[in-house]
Amino acid sequence: MKRRELLRSVATLSLAGGLIQPVTGTAVAGEYAVTRSDAEGPYYPRVDIPLDTNLRLGEGFTGEPLQFAGRVIDTTGQPVDAARVEIWQCDGNGIYPHPAAPSNEDFDSLFRGFGAMNCTERGEFSFATIVPVPYTGRPPHIHAKIHVAGAERLTTQVYLEGFRGPRKRKITLAESSNGYVANFDFVLG
C-alpha cells in the first residue's frame, strides 16, 4: 500500500467514527489525563525557535501538508494562561535540520522543521507543517515543548495513529481541502 493510500485509509477510518476527538483530554470524572513527558531527542534545534507557525517555506516542499492544532489545558479542561508551544520534526525525507543529524546537508530547504506559538486566551495553537514520516526505526512523530510564563513545563512527542508509540499520545489524520488536519490537546498537571 502506498503511503498516501495508507494516510487516506487512516483518515477515512477516523472520520467514520465521527468528529476527531483529542487523544488526551478524554474526560474521566470531570478530569483530563495529564500528557506524559517523553525524550527531547538528540535533534532539538540549536538556534532560537522563531515565533512562527508556518514550517512550510514555499511550494515544492517534500511531504503532505498538515495543519496540526489543539489546546494547552489543565486537568479540568481550562486553558493554561501564558502557554507557548514549540514543535520540531524531521522533513519529508526523515532528515532533521541539526548539525548532528545524519544527512543534514540534504535537509529540505522549503521546510523549516521547527516553529513556536504563544497560545490564544483559549489555550489554542495551530501550526502549518507536514505529516510526520518514519525514519531509521522511529515511528512518525512530532516533538513538542510547552512553556508557561517562560518556564519549561512539558517536553513530549506525539505519534501518528497506525504506527507504534504511546496510545494516549496519538494524532489521527483527517483529510482537508489543503492536505490533512490533526488535533491534540496537551494537558498539564
Rg of Cα set: 16 Å
Shape: globular
What percent strand?
A: 25-35%
The total of helices stands at 1
* SSE order: HEEEEEEEEE
Largest sheet: 5 strands, mixed
First-residue to last-residue Cα separation: 40 Å
What's the domain count?
A: 1
| CATH topology label | Protocatechuate 3,4-Dioxygenase, subunit A
Named CATH architecture:
Sandwich
Name given to the CATH homologous superfamily: Aromatic compound dioxygenase
**Portion of residues within helices:** under 10%
Q: Class by helix and strand content? A: mainly beta
Mean pLDDT: 88
Walk across the major sheet and give the strand order: 3-2-5-6-7
- Unreliably modeled segments: 1-29
CATH class: Mainly Beta
Would you count the extended β strands for me? 9
Summarize the structure.
By secondary structure, this protein is mainly beta. It is 7% helix and 32% strand.
Please give a structural write-up.
It is a single chain. With 189 residues, the chain is mainly beta. The chain has a single domain (3-188), classed as Aromatic compound dioxygenase (Protocatechuate 3,4-Dioxygenase, subunit A, Sandwich), CATH 2.60.130. The chain has one helix and nine strands. The strands form two sheets. The chain has a five-stranded mixed β-sheet, with no helix packed on it. Strands 4-1-9-8 form a four-stranded mixed β-sheet. The longest helix is centred in the N-terminal third of the chain and has 14 residues, at 3-16. It is globular. 37% of the residues are buried. Residues 1-29 have low confidence and may be disordered.
List the helices and strands and how they pair.
Elements: H1 3-16, E1 65-74, E2 83-88, E3 114-118, E4 124-130, E5 141-148, E6 151-160, E7 170-171, E8 174-176, E9 179-188
Parallel strand pairs: 1-9, 6-7
Antiparallel strand pairs: 1-4, 2-3, 2-5, 5-6, 8-9
